[in-house]
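Put briefly, the fold is written as integer tokens. The lines below illustrate.
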Amino acid sequence: MAVRPALVWFRNDLRVEDNPALHAAAASRAPLIALYILEEARELRARGAAWNWWLAGSLRNLSANLAKYGVPLTLRRGDPRKIVAEIMQESDISTAFWNRRYAADETNVDVEIEQHLLAQDCAVETFNASLLNEPWEIKSKAGGPIRVFTPYFRASEERGKPRKIIGGIETVRAANPPRSEALEGWKLEPSRPDWAADMDASWTRGEHGAKQRLHDFVGGALREYADARDRPDIDGTSRLSPYLAHGEISPHQITAALPSRGSNADKYRAELGWREFSYHLLHHYPALARENFQHRFNAFPWRDDTIGLKRWQRGLTGYPIVDAGMRQLWRTGWMHNRVRMICASFLIKHLLIDWRLGEQWFWDTLVDADPANNAASWQWVAGSGADAAPYFRIFNPVLQSEKFDPEGAYVRNWIPEIALLPNQFIHKPWEAAPLELAAAKVVLGKTYPDPIVDHREARERALHAFQSLKG
């Protein structure tokens, strides 16, 4: 009797090694069908162009890695409920394997698919591939969710070491593959104009790129991570977030590569802990990207400022550190974390623009757009989230720039029109004298914008707005 094939449905786990669903499917000894669906459904939050650009390279790499085992990657586009049902019927699938995801829109669809498969005599096995702990596993002493990061992280550390790395797969059998669409037909990468040229030069997409980046980080920047991670002018961070977001590497692989002790490794583990905490919040508060975690912020007097939002998006606020960050984001699909906080604070507190508009822009433009991290971090900056920054913490963009980009190297790299300004004015061009501006070929208001708002006035306006919530 012919053995019915097994389906491995890839989603945000685009790797061969340490992939629990793929490993379990291979261990079943059933012929394998590997599937990726470019999901299009009304309930699912659409991905941005930067994410899709990364996805194209990741799928090419995954396809090549699976081909080494003789398993082709089937590509389909559309509603995942319809597509999985079709493939189950076409190929007489016995078991479907996939790794879990945690955004409510995605989990709701997954539940529908699982129920349909079970009703059709198709078993379903699901696994945790993207988190060190399931979002529901860490609990308060009362048994509920934890709303503050420090006790959450302490509780997660007390659970002990995470599971061991699973490794790759051995010899597998491939089933007759279903019809596959061509990746090029999805047009995930731009051609004319090729707006992704800087992104392509900045990243090596795929599982191999993830391994190389981890190797380089552990052998390099990790040694000074605790002190250098806030410096956007140097390569002091891991830059692993896009690989984690697409599942080209797992947090288990990262933690296994870290030294067991030391302030730098401990600090980086805490950063991974914030990612875990964000998923904990998302699980318990599914509307994290749409609704204020603290409901008192529903009465906050946001400003309707279309022009201000557009200037922020384009990196034309007149504040160099903000503009540098927004241009880095637009051109590379990524932004240094310290600068993300500065840019988010500026939008929310200097311009009093709703944090949800910033969260949506980051979602549309980041290669590492993450449903938990993105929402939790924006609410943290706004003061509306769990364990949020206090409302009166309003970053001074000039002081932040002077502290974390002391020589102005980051600003000069992304804002070449002011690169000739001396260090004392690179962070605040409006304070330069006319002769100094002329020598640097800067004409404020023409070659580079005047500040969109005065910091002191914006700070007072923000404090007044936040104080109104107390009433």
About this structure: The first helix runs from residue 20 to 27. The mean pLDDT is 95. The radius of gyration is 24 Å.
